[in-house]
Amino acid sequence: MDLREKKTKRNITNAFLQLRAQKPLERITIKELAGLAEISKATFYLHYHDIYDLSDTLEKEIIQDILDGLPHADSVLSDTSQFFRELIIAFHAQQHLIEILFSGSRANILPYNIEQGIRQHIFQRNPDLRDDAAFNTRLTYQILGCYYAYTENRHLFGEKQVLDALDQIMQTMMVSPTT
Q1: Whether 163 and 82 share a structural domain
Q2: How far are the Cα atoms of 22, 72, 77, 169 from residue 103, in angstroms, in the given order?
């Protein structure tokens, strides 16, 4: 990608984030985005099919950044407390963008896709767990529960207290495979 293309994509992204912080995705038009990014509508369409394609691309980048921020993803099988602490830290590192991109109608996409990414990682190394109902149910419960418990309570009690509470919960609820 040449320098002009990088600059154009950066302008599109910045304009989109600015608009998305102010209004729902469904109310953003290509015309206003192009105007704010100082590009033509045709230039936008060279890079993206529509506003949803742009949003989806940015969402996938954030999700991948979160997954890449889990240096010990395999620890979900052995040290759930450490794993979920790392997961919350990875969420927190992207919090500003998460609040913009995953608000409104897009709110449930993030935890679901994080769960799917972690699940895929685990199944690559442990394919036998794919059919373990107890393991899969606990994993979903823990990932989604951890995410929602953190996001709903961090403003009320502070991040440290919520992380400590989640630590205690995860220590009592191992996600390891059934034997």
Answers
A1: yes
A2: 11, 28, 31, 27
Could you report the per-residue pLDDT of 19-44, keeping only the tens digit for each? 999 999 999 999 999 999 999 999 99
* Residue 70 domain flag: yes
Q: Note whether residue 179 is domain-resident.
A: no
Residue 80: pLDDT above 50? yes
pTM for the whole structure:
0.83
C-alpha torsion sign, points 175, 176, 177, 179: negative
Query: What are the tokens at 8?
Result: 């154009």
Cα dist. 23→28, 47, 48, 71 in Å? 7, 22, 20, 35
Q: Chain centroid to CA 177: how far? A: 25
Both 113 and 79 in a single domain?
Answer: yes
Q: What is the DSSP string of 20-87?
A: HHHS-GGG--HHHHHHHHT--HHHHHHH-SSHHHHHHHHHHHHHHHHHHT-TTGGGGGT-HHHHHHHH
Residue 177's identity, in one-letter code, is P
Instruction: Please say if the pLDDT value at position 149 is more than 60.
Output: yes
